Amino acid sequence: MSTANNNQISLDDKLYTVRRKGLKASHITLNEQVCKECTKRVCTYICPAEVYMWDEAEKRIDIRYENCLECGACRVACDCIEWSNPIWGAGIVYKNS
Amino acid sequence: MASRSLGIMDTRNVLEESLNDVSEKCEVVIIGAGPAGISCGYVLAKGGVDVVILERGQYPGAKNMFGGIFYSNQMNKLIPNFYNEAPVERFVAKKHYSMLVDGSEIALSFESEEHKKPPYNHSFIVKRSAFDKWFAQKAREQGATIICGVTVTDFLWDGKKVAGVTTGAGYDNALLADVVVCAEGANSLLSEKAGLRNRLSMRARCIAVKEVIGLGKDVIDERFGLTAREGAAYEYFADVTPGMLGDGFIYTNLDSLSAGVGIVVSEMYGQENPVSPNELLERFKNHPCVKPLIKGGKILEYSAHMIPMDGYKNIPKPYTDGLLLVGDAAGFVNNSVCHEGMNMAMASGMMAAETILKRRKEKRYDARALGLYEWLLKDSFVLKNMKSCRDFIDILRTHKEVTNDYPHLLKDVLTKFFEVGEVPKSVVKSNIFHMLRKRINFVKTAKTFASLLKNGI
Predict the structure, then answer these.
(1) Which residue of A has its CA nearest to B307?
(2) Which residues contact B208 (CB under 8 A, 6 or more apart)?
(3) Which domains does chain B have, with CATH numbers?
(4) ipTM computed for the complex
């Protein structure tokens, strides 16, 4: 755990504070062809968990779906993202929010 | 449903079997155990209805998050003096509205002795993971069945009427109901499937991130000037989300703080130098006027959620044949400075229950019969408050100077005014007046503020 008076706490440290029940499969899909041609890449900065990362070498978006906080903002910001709620109680389990 | 052949003809269905094969049935199914869903379930169960609430989290509250302020009139009606037994963190004794401008702060603080006595102005700070769990237990005690760890993925349709819900392929996963109440929350995927909404637009949602920061009760009391169960609600505007519509907040829990930032999604889209919600929160926490408040705290939990910004003019029709939308799913949030959400969720849940109880005698749940729900909403504070501040967001959207330029101007004016020196005050005042004349058009500014007062608050 990090102290709040550090200048910057890494996002990974923050995500580590969230309890989860493991996801068996990705609940997010996107259209790779559209991603290749996309110039805005809003998914890479709209997500509070930075689930979406542009891989320059592979020319594709990497999805770290297991970090998802289930807010759904990515789906609102980008029409090519298909997002569904994790099933059977998987995903985030907030204990302090 | 008995002997009628109800083949699934629609592509909206995931069930391959016919509804006849579904054996599980109840009177009312509610999707989601948040404040809207639980309130609805509570009232229905109390009225003797066979009601099942399906919650996708491992327990009620596991997937729920909000800023922290709960207006509790509805709860107090349902469970009088609930705050004596419910897990509330603190009541709101102090309200603090602040503009952050560069490294400075301009603030208005309000503390009223009348609000420090029961029922504490119906304003409490709560953590949803604890509070929703408690409230769900209260609904269970009334006779509601709550099943957790179950994600509703689609509706079952009997022609054009919603006839139940499904949680996956196969009739084992289907549950029939006379009427369905959708309390799925701000990420309203099912409301879209029901055809009551288009795919959510970027203007219709705000993305909010929050950290719960652990800090001793004594430290919090001292820093915020509180005693016993008094709490503080600090709201921050202007440079928290530079150039974008949004705000920041710090609310005091008992022995932790909730610090967060919310930004309208459309405002983030296409920025020249994109900043993520997490980065905005970090900047907010490191502002020289905010940093001392959270100093030394440990992050207990990071969370994110969307906030409906549909507004009065864009809320969906909240009912169709066999289905009612309540709470965030229906966009019932007052986006003005009052931040009403959970109270509207509860009120709408209770009105949905009232509608169902009225229509239960004839067992009529078609759209015409359920239209009563909308009448109740129109007659209540839910739609009245949303109506009275219907232009708030639009005014701020089209008058960016209100959040971008005026706070800077005000800061410059105050800096000049309070500056200690040997320049005569008459000269200072004249300088300030010239500065104002140069930077604003008085008539235009007055008009903007008049419209904000009229249709904004």
Answers:
(1) A71
(2) B67, B260, B261, B262, B263, B277, B304, B305, B306, B307
(3) 19-87+127-197+316-388 (3.50.50.60), 203-308 (3.30.9.90), 393-455 (no CATH)
(4) 0.94
